[in-house]
Write a structure and sequence with these properties.
It is built from 21 helices and 10 strands. Helix 7 runs antiparallel to helix 12 and helix 11 packs antiparallel against helix 12. The structure holds adenosine-5'-diphosphate. Adenosine-5'-diphosphate binds next to helix 13.
Length: 597
């Protein structure tokens, strides 16, 4: 129940509303019990059993009976009946007003907590490192932010409402019943531990099933998400049936768990009802004997006792349901908190000074592994300021990883990367990245306007957006960009080359000190290729640039080329120097593996 306690702690900012709702709930309980109590004089009037002459009669009942009797003596039975009915009606109306007022007060609390958790999840995902995201499944994460949060709202927060009202209802009703007939009431209470024991057993097993079901739902959504993303490949490789079977497998596991959840949850009502009705019948039997013997109850009072008792049953049912729901919601809350508790990557606190960007970036003895497997292996490299360094080498040699390390997406396990005297580990990453331009191999675009994509998140500075689009040769397809037209999901309304140029415009907009560039390997037509190339050259000019290069022209123009193999720099020099050397780089160029244009 730790997660439930944490959800409760989120109530703190809403304390005034919670207290108000609790007050309305107390009123509801008072009116609710009072409305049934008000039935007693009505019934006594109808049956003409005033109840003043009973052997054992509690003070409140005697006082009530005397008031009714004296009113009846003055105004007659019919008028008295009329007045008692009106009074009862008023109490019922008040009960319902206060019940609604309690719900009315709590709804901003319920929705507030859910939206708070949604925002926290969203911000947590953004804060986690790309490496941590590698271990998370998108569909599962989305399930946590949707289905799990819904579950928390419906089970836990709804359960909490009942949690204030119904126990009060139970206590209040029992007190009243006790004054009416201690013997009958004690009998009713005796059944409570039996119910509690039964219900707790089923509750524990329900929690297990609920957790499994939510986990399976996460897998399920991941599979769906993957299918939607990879649809063309699935069709082209005729993998429809395999995908369908994979989905069916996950779905059947989910169904199995859900069926078990439903069955266990549905068990709570029958258990509660059977227990309740058994007690009720015993009460009717023993109470009926009291009435027949003319001891402590009139017939009307026994009916009121039974009605009150019947009010207890739904209250008990609500409490047990709330207990189940909280167990169920607890499983979801645990999944949400699991993400919220993930440790965020540490960031240093030193913001790089402007003049530091004039200094070289130095990799010294850098070691970086994924899952214990070294990808960067004791790498030493100096990236000169204001110059272009091209990273070349076989695929899988660690070039992209080097860019990721430079962007601070992850830190080396050994060795250091430093900007002048500043170790990247100690750098405040946000301040560092504000000077960073990143052009990934696959342009990552948002379904918003050109300006929105270029300025990404910040309010677009229109003249700067215009200059960036111009510099990246985007104006021919984005001539009316200022109209705010959106570019479709992932830039679907643009061609491949256009998307790349828009991604370059984004880097121009930042005017970065350090440019990280993963050159696209995807072939474009000659004209697009030339435009992208031109845009890139403009961007790289007089900037510290590290480019994972695939085009011979980019490499030839670079100030230094680092040939990377198995996470180490094997050769370093200019194009001419390395050709002269006749090593691995020269072999690569001679093989014609690099794209000539
Ligand atoms: P390159 O850019 O030179 O092709 P990468 O830097 O992308 O190479 O990858 C280097 C190695 O790291 C590859 O063997 C790849 O399998 C591995 N790798 C890359 N990303 C991950 C990851 N998120 N988890 C585990 N291994 C990874």
């Amino acid at each position: 129940m730790k997660s439930f306690a944490r959800i409760l702690s989120l109530l703190k900012p809403y304390m005034p509303l919670v207290v108000l709702a609790a007050a309305f709930n107390i009123l509801t309980v008072i009116f609710s019990i009072g409305s049934v109590g008000a039935l007693i004089p009505i019934l006594n009037l109808i049956f003409d059993t005033p109840g003043i002459d009973l052997a054992n009669i509690p003070a409140w009942k005697l006082a009530l009976a005397e008031i009714v009797e004296s009113y009846k003596a003055q105004h007659g039975a019919v008028k008295t009946l009329y007045v008692t009915v009106i009074v009862t009606l008023c109490i019922f109306i008040l009960k319902n007003i206060s019940r609604y007022a309690a719900l009315f007060t709590l709804s901003p609390v319920r929705n507030g907590i859910v939206s708070y958790l949604k925002q926290q999840l969203h911000d947590k995902w953004i804060a986690l490192s790309l490496r941590q995201h590698g271990d998370l499944k998108k569909g599962d994460m989305l399930t946590r932010a949707t289905a799990d949060l819904n579950e928390i709202e419906w089970s836990m927060l709804k359960g909490m409402e009942g949690f204030v009202r119904d126990p009060l209802m139970i206590v209040g009703t029992l007190v009243l019943l006790f004054t009416m007939s201690p013997k009958l009431t004690l009998l009713a209470i005796a059944i409570i531990p039996i119910s509690a024991g039964l219900i707790a057993t089923v509750g524990r097993s329900l929690k297990k099933s609920a957790k499994k079901a939510q986990e399976e739902l996460g897998q399920n959504t991941s599979a769906l998400e993957e299918v939607l993303t990879n649809l063309p490949i699935i069709k082209a490789f005729v993998a429809e049936e395999a995908m369908s079977a994979r989905y069916a497998k996950s779905l059947s596991a989910w169904t199995r768990h859900m069926v078990s959840v439903f069955r266990k949850r549905d068990l709570s009502s029958p258990i509660a009802e059977v227990l309740g009705v058994s007690v009720l019948l015993v009460v009717l039997y023993l109470g009926g004997m009291e009435v027949i013997a003319g001891r402590s109850l009139t017939g009307g009072e026994l009916i009121a006792f039974v009605v009150l008792f019947y009010q207890l049953i739904p209250a008990f049912k609500n409490v047990t349901n709330a207990l189940y729901d909280i167990q169920k919601g607890n499983a979801s809350a645990a999944r949400v908190f699991e993400v919220l508790d993930m440790e965020e990557p540490r960031s240093g606190s030193i913001a790089p000074k402007q003049e530091q960007w004039q200094e070289d970036i130095i990799f010294s003895g850098v070691l970086f592994s994924y899952d214990e497997r070294p990808v960067i292996n004791n790498l030493n490299l100096t990236i000169p300021s204001g110059k272009t360094t091209a990273l070349v080498g076989p695929s899988g040699s660690g070039k992209t990883t080097l860019l990721h390390l430079l962007a601070g997406f992850a830190h080396p396990q050994q060795g250091s990367i430093s900007l002048g005297s500043l170790n990247l580990q100690d750098t405040e990453l946000k301040a560092y990245r504000q000077n960073l331009g990143w052009v990934p191999q696959q342009p990552l675009l948002f379904n918003s306007s050109f300006a929105g994509n270029v300025a990404l998140g910040s309010t677009p500075d229109i003249p700067r957006v215009a200059a960036a689009l111009e510099a990246a040769y985007c104006t021919e397809f984005a001539s009316n960009w200022s109209a705010g037209k959106v570019i479709g999901e992932g830039g679907s309304s643009l061609s491949g080359g256009q998307r790349q140029r828009l991604s370059i415009a984004r880097a121009f907009y930042v005017d970065p000190k350090l440019l990280l560039l993963d050159e696209a390997t995807a072939a474009l037509d000659n004209e697009s290729e030339a435009k992208v190339q031109q845009a890139l050259e403009g961007l790289m000019k007089e900037r510290t640039t590290v480019v994972v290069a695939h085009r011979l022209s980019t490499i030839k123009n670079a100030d230094q080329i680092a040939y990377i193999e198995e996470g180490r720099v094997i050769e370093l020099g200019t194009h001419a120097e390395l050709i002269e050397k006749g090593g691995k780089y020269a072999a690569l160029v001679n093989l014609g593996d690099l794209k000539a244009e």
